[in-house]
Design a protein that fits this description.
The complex is a heterodimer of chains A (about 120) and B (about 325). Chain A is of the alpha+beta class and about 120 residues long. Chain A has four helices and three strands, in the order H-E-H-H-E-E-H. Helices cover about 70% and strands about 15% of the residues of chain A. With about 325 residues, chain B is mainly alpha-helical. In chain B, helix 1 (about 1-25) crosses helix 4 (about 80-90) and helix 11 runs antiparallel to helix 12 (about 295-325). Chains A and B meet through helix 2, helix 3 and strand 3 of A and helix 2 and helix 4 of B.
Chain lengths: ~120, ~325
Amino acid sequence: MISDDTSYSVYENLASELRRGVLVLAVLAQCGEVQYGYSLKQQLAAAGLDINEGTLYPLLRRLEGQGLLASEWLVTEDRPRRYYKLSTTGSAVLERLSAEWQTLVGVVARILPEKEN
Amino acid sequence: MYGKTITQKTEQKASDEWIDRYVNEVGRRLPANQRSDVEREIRSLIEDAVAGRFETLEVEGVPLAERETVVLAVLQAFGSPEEIAARYHAPRYLIGPTIFPIYRIVLSIVLAVTVFANLLGVVVAADEQMAAPLVETLLSLFGSIIQTVGMVTLLFVALERLGVAAESRPQPWNPTSLPAVKDPQRVNLVETAIDIGFTAAVIVLLNVYLNRRTGALFYNGEWQTMPLFSQEFLQYIPWLTAIWCADILVNIILLTRGRWEPFTRIATMITATAAAILFYSMISSGPIGAWPPVEPAFKVTAAIIFAVSLVEVGKQGWLLLRSSNWIGDRLHSQQVL
């Protein structure tokens, strides 16, 4: 017998894994325009994707390391900030990932009602 | 007014101290080439988050909290320095999973050689009546083992750091290559490593010690020192060394491949046949030992090695035939019938 606490904890882990999977797509999509870490976090939160700082900021560096984002330091509002923007490779990857996402949404949508029935 | 400015400055100093501590704790967990850049970015992100929280509080009409309280809340949201540093920097292995199996094999071989070389040293010292006390001998053996493990580990850590493992690509895998649960072709790694160590020790013993040293013998009523082996036997040493070196090479190939294959079975048959021919020649020709009283013991030993070599040739030949498709098919058809 699985307790409610265990069930909730399993759910939390799985939901977090699911969100992490789509986070790359969401970040790349938002970086079509120049973004700094905090502004990106705010925009994602406003869109309904509230991501922990400890997850989001290292991800930006990783995507930059993979050549999907480009970055530079700029001083705005008297404060130095690192700004990120989608690179050419990033744009191409985003396009393919978006298509993949649309396919997945369609596939999962077809599967879920079957399970419910 | 003056008092308020002093309070604000004190509070700013206290909250900056928390940010400094946090950034420092993250930075010291990162490699030197990333440290300053990530530290600068995290500091900037924390400052943004603190400013953002104050803006939110103002918009929501909540009474402004002390800056230190807000900074601590932001740091709490960022997560522990260990966690965030781990996310900025992919985990690094001392010895990664790619080269770890090779590390284990090499360590087994080198350890086996070390233990045999040490035991050999004890035997030689005892023969020359220079044996050290048991405790000293064991401590020396323990020291050698620690030194060997350390050296091999350091070598592999250096290989890992140089990125040797990163260059290797996984081989394409085919499910039909899966070995049977009880696989006669599987190599016993420990046994093979011990075999290598033992053969290496015998090569050293034969070439370095027994080749030129003398043995003590109570002969004709008094102790005499004489060469251990005859001149005829000494001529065999280069051949024996060549065969045993080939044997070590085959065993190293077996360790790296992990399975017996036709070419390793054929190579083992060739070395065993060569050994059998050599030992037959020793038995049938001149004396092996330099002293007549020990000659029967030497001849019997040579005969045993000759017989073992022949058995090995037969065993490998049979296993080679059994592993071939022709025999496998025949056995299968008999079972079906």
